[in-house]
Specification:
single chain, alpha/beta, Rossmann fold, Rna Polymerase Sigma Factor, Chain: A, 2 domains, 13 helices, about 15% strand, globular, acyltransferase, HAT_MetX-like
């Protein structure tokens, strides 16, 4: 069940703009133990929500590595999202109407500060493990730089210290598609629909890989000259996002993603990463074109106590959502090492995970 926290005082953003009050939508799973030291905090990716059990099946849930019977799991919907936290859908008190395209820029650093504030309001002082993938990993990295003493352990998946010009180019192409829709940000029925569907089609290409399409979108009849399966797939992906996500929120979040730079006003990326004191597991995907392995290698080079694991996957960037059996085993091994679980217990646990069967969801970057 999604919960809502209302914070009735202004929140000043990195840009200097201010949100007069905040609402934070969040989900929790499990129970906080007496020592209050069993918290796992998950930062979601671009268009996901705070229900991590729903969008990370096989990793979060009973019997999996992030098990609510063992941990108190928290996931907070980020600022600007469609799922209940303050966003372009919220009412601007100055106009009495939704912010829409006038919603101020929220950087990934702002997201880290927002999570830190929410944790304080929830009475969470210490976090056993902070983790996130993609934009969620960017926000987790920011939070770890802002308040490194709060975290025992860190796990960063398919993410980077600074968003690349290539990634910014993809996001701007999506925003161009959104702006080309004259209904974006208006009161028209289905406002922004066509723009969002086109934007998502662009995005999915960056989340997948040549091998993904080659394996899943081949035309059944090699003699066809039109009506291709890949074309239908792109349209379907656009429609599917339109059914669940607000176009102005998508516009706002991609701007925030573009802002990501851990080194800004911290003396550069290397200096910023060296501030992270928590033992850190970094997971990379060998076919990820949006967040290539060289970016995770940079994280590993400068985070003092870090370990880099590179997964093989045919799913590109989406591997961080799809390859949950591998991620679960890597994370279980990392937790066992860091929490000093004895060798017999560690092997029994990882063996039990490796024997499980997992459904491979037909998902895309969320």
């Amino acid at each position: 069940m999604t919960n809502y926290l209302h914070i009735n005082h202004p929140f000043t953003l990195e840009s200097g703009a201010s949100l007069p009050y905040l609402t934070a939508a969040y989900n929790t799973y499990g129970e906080l133990n007496e020592a209050r030291d069993n918290v796992i905090w998950i930062c979601h990716a671009l268009t996901a929500n705070s229900d991590a059990e729903d969008w990370w099946p096989g990793l979060v849930g009973e019997g999996f590595t992030i098990d609510p019977n063992q941990y108190f799991i928290v996931c907070v919907n980020m600022l600007g999202s469609s799922y209940g936290t303050t966003s372009p859908k919220s009412i601007d008190p100055d106009t009495g109407k939704p912010y829409g395209l006038d919603f101020p820029l929220v950087t990934t650093r702002d997201q880290g500060r927002f999570f830190d504030l929410v944790a304080n309001y929830l009475g969470i002082r210490r976090i056993r493990l902070l983790m996130g993938g993609s934009m969620g990993g960017q926000c987790a990295g920011e939070w770890a730089c802002l308040n490194p003493d709060r975290f025992d352990l860190l796990c960063l998946l398919a993410t980077n210290a600074r968003f690349s010009p290539y990634g910014i180019g993809f996001n701007e192409s999506q925003r161009m598609a959104l702006r080309a829709d004259p209904t974006l940000g208006t009161d028209a029925p289905d406002a922004g629909r066509l723009g969002l569907e086109a934007a998502r089609s662009v995005a999915v290409l960056s989340y997948r890989h040549y091998r993904t399409y080659h394996a899943t979108q081949q035309q059944p009849d090699a003699d066809d000259i039109d009506d291709f399966r890949a074309s239908s797939y792109q349209r379907y992906q656009g429609y599917k996002l339109w059914k669940r996500f607000d176009p102005t929120c998508y516009y706002a979040l991609t701007r925030g993603m573009d802002s990501h730079n851990l080194g800004r006003k911290r003396g550069g990326e290397a200096a910023a990463l060296q501030k992270i004191t928590s033992p850190t597991l970094i997971i990379s995907i060998d076919t990820d074109v949006l967040f290539p392995t060289e970016e995770q290698s940079l994280l590993s080079r400068y985070i003092p106590n870090s370990r880099l694991d590179v997964m093989s996957s045919d799913y590109g960037h989406d591997g961080f959502l799809v390859e949950t059996p591998t991620i679960g085993l890597l994370l279980a091994d990392f937790l066992a090492d860091q929490l000093q679980i004895d060798a017999n217990t560690k092997h029994a646990f990882t063996d039990s995970l490796s024997g499980r069967t997992f459904a491979i969801p037909g998902t895309e970057e969320v």
